[in-house]
Amino acid sequence: MAQFEEVSKQSSQHPKPAGLVLQYGTAGFRTNAKHLDHIMFRMGLLATLRSKKTKATIGVMVTASHNPEEDNGVKLIDPMGEMVTPAWEGYATQLANAEQGDLLTALKDIIEKESINMSQEANVFVGKDTRSSSASLSQAVLDGVSALGGHSKDYGLVTTPQLHYMVCCQNTQGKYGEATIEGYYRKLCQAFIHLSVQQASNCTDDQKHLSVDGANGIGALKVREMESHLRRELQISLFNDGSKGKLNHQCGADFVKVQQKPPTGININPGERCCSFDGDADRIVYYYTDSDGQFHLLDGDKIATLISTFLKELLTQAGLDLKIAVVQTAYANGSSTHYLEDTMKVIVRCTKTGVKHLHHAAQEFDIGVYFEANGHGTVLFSKVAEEKIQQLAEDPNMNDERKRAARLLQNTINVINQTVGDAISDMLLIEAILAIRGMTVQQWDAIYSDLPNRQLKVKVSDRRVIDTTDAERRAVSPAGLQEAIDTLVKKHRLARSFVRPSGTEDVVRVYAEAETQESADSLAHEVSLAVYRLAGGVGDEPKPLH
Ligand code: 16G
Ligand code: MG
């Protein structure tokens, strides 16, 4: 067929280095940008097939998120704006690793397995982050789409969540919003302004101010672009806007969360509210320093608590009986889980690490708030929940308090990007909640106190020897490891620890929390040693932290 001839011809412009093997991991392909040209071309092909199969628009985002500037990566987006389904992650890996001469066979194999009608039209949306390699790599994606005769729309520089949003809007015929960047700003900012009008009467101009660390990436560009839509209801000082610093270098949400310190390149005054985005703006963390110079981090767990508390109160005021739950991972601080379950009395679920797991678990409730501790998260509203809220907001016989709560819920729904965690949308929601409640960042922080914790990594010869269960909270292999962890945990107060093979790096991750930092540090070290000894550690034995 002519289509396949075109693929052959074009693919020779994007040849695969022989022997190179890459995996579609937790968040797509991600590695040094120089190994990715053929991957991008092939993901253009695969997205075209996926579009034919689903008869819907598919998204392809070129980014390596919080990785260093030299890296790049690619993620596929399914019709409703969610991550691509697992079976197709498998196809992505197969197609990526087929040697140059076997590409057509690999392609035909997928077409056959999925019974794809090749005469079906295909549409693919493509976006990219600010990395210098992103321009040519996104061109390779576009080449892949056109080689199979698909139509593409190049959104150019966008955040990852913006592209997810565009895909969802397109496939819901505009019901979710307009599939343009302007449409995105308009929807989110209008909802934000409606919410802000409800702010506590004592809210000063100072409280409308927020310092944003843009990680020298796409998020910074997009915050600038959005600013005029905010009509000074939110006054942003933007740092690390990419004009001088390097992408993600000593800045951004991942740096701040892992290092537990402020990014470089930001002027931080004691008591002032600040936040950091990651390199593709799908994560956000907040922080401030107090008058003693002490750093205070408000991570994904604190964000989930703030949002779910706000929503639960609104539901009570609205008199709506909707089931709300918070979805976390094993990394959630024990204090947050306790607070949510025991004080807030909301349902808490724990899933494996990785956005898609949290997203799916959240879909099971009327309102599902999901956040990873690292700051990736959003809120999902079921169709039923949205309808009930709308009915109430429009009911002419309803009393004012219930109606006001329902309207607030409506605007909350509109400020949220439900397709995936979105730093810009999360920021607007958090700012609106703080304004409505007249709450300072210190008061938010004081809702509960985090247990001190430590994360370490251990190199082993094959991390697959570690197998886990119970949402990664217990190890089932190698033999004896879980028993060893249990014994070590018992030596510390308020302690918890787990280990899991990383999905993005060739290491085993160790998490420990306990009553004091010393205790968390020594537990993390002791568990690292157990991993090193029982799971085939390589290199030097882990050393104590102190
Ligand atoms: C990826 C995941 C993130 C997860 C992280 C864990 C997505 C979009 N991203 O970045 O959710 O927290 O991996 O990394 O799913 P690890 O497996 O190396 O600990
Ligand atoms: Mg990211």
TrEMBL record:
Binding site for substrate: E372, A373, N374, R500, P501, S502, G503, T504, R509
Note accompanying the cofactor annotation: Binds 1 Mg(2+) ion per subunit.
Top-level EC class: isomerase
Residue ranges of domain Alpha-D-phosphohexomutase alpha/beta/alpha in the record: 52-87, 114-167
InterPro entries in alphabetical order: A-D-PHexomutase_a/b/a-I, A-D-PHexomutase_a/b/a-I/II/III, A-D-PHexomutase_C, A-D-PHexomutase_C_sf, A-D-PHexomutase_CS, AMG1_II, AMG1_III, PAGM
Residues covered by the Phosphoacetylglucosamine mutase AMG1 domain: 179-285, 299-437
Domain Alpha-D-phosphohexomutase C-terminal: 476-528
Keywords: Acetylation, Carbohydrate metabolism, Isomerase, Magnesium, Metal-binding, Phosphoprotein
The protein's Enzyme Commission number: 5.4.2.3
UniProt-listed GO biological process terms: carbohydrate metabolic process; hemopoiesis; UDP-N-acetylglucosamine biosynthetic process
Chemical reaction(s) catalysed: N-acetyl-alpha-D-glucosamine 1-phosphate = N-acetyl-D-glucosamine 6-phosphate
Cofactor(s) demanded: Mg(2+)
Pfam families: AMG1_II (PF21405), AMG1_III (PF21404), PGM_PMM_I (PF02878), PGM_PMM_IV (PF00408)
A GO MF label: magnesium ion binding
Residues annotated as catalytic: S65 (phosphoserine intermediate)
Residues that coordinate or bind Mg(2+): S65, D278, D280, D282
Pathway(s) per entry: Nucleotide-sugar biosynthesis; UDP-N-acetyl-alpha-D-glucosamine biosynthesis; N-acetyl-alpha-D-glucosamine 1-phosphate from alpha-D-glucosamine 6-phosphate (route I): step 2/2
Family designation: Belongs to the phosphohexose mutase family.
Function: Catalyzes the conversion of GlcNAc-6-P into GlcNAc-1-P during the synthesis of uridine diphosphate/UDP-GlcNAc, a sugar nucleotide critical to multiple glycosylation pathways including protein N- and O-glycosylation.
Protein name: Phosphoacetylglucosamine mutase
Gene: PGM3
